[in-house]
What does this fold into?
Amino acid sequence: MFRPLSIFIGTRYTRAKRRNRFVSFISMTSMIGLALGVLAMIVVLSVMNGFQREMSSRILGMVPHATIVGVKPIDDWQPVAGA
It folds into this structure.
């Protein structure tokens, strides 16, 4: 049957015949190494994203975005703070 060229080339080098076992070993080793590298990169990016979000929430939790200061003091500030 008809197979796409990329699948044909991929199966040719991953399932080598008896005389080309070394090529099959090298290609499987490189595919496993590539998969482990991508896995490590995904894990590191996820950890760094969570770390950045946590640090932003902690820093902004202690230091407000803005401080509002009036010309004269606010006498009844409780209703304003509750809103």
User: Anything to note?
Assistant: DSSP finds three helices and no strands in the chain. Helices lie at 5-14, 21-62, 77-82.
